[in-house]
Design goal:
By secondary structure, the chain is an all-alpha fold. It has one domain (about 20-310): Orthogonal Bundle (ABC transporter involved in vitamin B12 uptake, BtuC), CATH 1.10.3470. Helices cover about 75% and strands about 0% of the residues. The chain has a two-stranded antiparallel ribbon. The N and C termini lie close together (about 10 Å).
Length: about 325
């Protein structure tokens, strides 16, 4: 009996805080390997680097909690960036208005994803894959494949500025996480998101409007992707049609590392920040050690597989322990 209780406790601890231990191990390893790793400048550099993935991860968490996925997040981010750049340069639009319009457009693209998935029963993987390719194509069409320069320099503060010692992108990420966590924990719609991911049919029978919930989460995904794209635009000081390529891989990995179940209904947004930090620390540490970019890609792929495998192992262990 004691062994069963011990196994149950271990599985529970690993399920809830296993990734925190992984993060701490990575920090210690890179700190020992590279003395510059724990310098204040590098810590803020890591936080700035992960801010883009972190912002998108909030919307992705909403989506994955319902059992869905969004492969179009990187393309929407890139399109929002070049769209805002064109509005500010070609049409001399106010930067704030241009940013707001692109956020609305990102939300609209997310709603289109949600409509395909909820109304036409297109699998999330296929619907968002199609959106990823189409929106990326639009970005190349409107720019002619060339970067867009020449907008107001004041706009770059959004991606390059500081509030005290803290980079503004980090502040935006933190605010996005806080708002997302409050929404999931304190609102009726937040509880419905978990319910839809846990058991969609039971939620439907309970009176939950499944279509509205799916439109909501994909709208949130499009909005956060567009917001991240605007930060990338300010950070790079140019609208690049290829901006955001590969973001979907890093975002999904970070969310899964944060304990969000691929099948939906399980996980906490508060732990997703741990997954985001693991990706940032891993990337920064490997770069400081001089590891080749192609090797880094290989390792990030293995990390995603390992995260899903660990998630499933812990879930299976918990199930067996409870059944016994």
């Amino acid at each position: 009996m004691k062994k069963k209780n011990g196994a149950a406790k271990f599985a529970k601890v690993m399920g809830g805080y296993g990734m925190v231990f992984v993060l701490l191990i990575l920090i210690v390893f890179f700190a020992v390997s590279q003395k510059r790793f724990l310098q204040e400048s590098n810590i803020f550099n890591v936080l700035r680097q992960v801010s883009i993935v972190g912002i998108i991860a909030v919307g992705m968490t909403f989506i994955m909690l319902t059992g869905g996925i969004d492969l179009s997040c990187g393309s929407v981010a890139g399109f929002a960036g070049v769209g805002a750049a064109i509005l500010m340069t070609k049409y001399a639009m106010n930067p704030v208005l241009a940013a707001l319009l692109m956020c609305l457009l990102g939300a609209a693209l997310g709603i289109v994803n949600g409509l395909f998935i909820s109304k036409l029963n297109v699998p999330p993987f296929i619907a968002t894959l199609g959106m990823m390719v189409s929106v990326r194509g639009l970005a190349y069409i409107i720019t002619g494949g060339l970067p867009v320069f020449g907008f107001d320099k004041a706009y770059t503060k959004l991606g390059q500025g500081y509030f005290g010692p803290i980079p503004i992108p980090v502040i935006i990420m933190v605010i996005t996480f806080v708002l997302g966590a409050i929404f999931l924990a304190k609102t009726r719609a937040g509880r419905h998101i978990y319910g839809v991911g846990g058991n969609e049919e039971a939620s439907r029978l309970s009176g939950v409007n499944i279509t509205k919930i799916k439109l909501l989460v994909y709208c949130a995904g499009g909005l956060t992707s567009a917001l991240a794209g605007l930060v990338v635009l300010a950070r790079t000081n140019s609208g690049q049609p290829n901006a955001g390529e590969g973001y979907e891989m890093d975002v999904i990995t970070a969310v899964v590392l944060g304990g969000i179940s691929m099948s939906g209904g399980q996980g906490r947004l508060g732990m997703v920040i741990v997954g985001v930090l693991i990706m940032g620390v891993l990337s920064n540490g490997m770069t400081m050690l001089g590891i080749n970019e192609f090797v880094q890609q290989f390792i990030r792929g293995l990390v995603l597989i390992a995260a899903v495998a660990l998630n499933n192992f812990i879930k299976t262990t918990n199930t067996k322990t409870v059944s016994k």
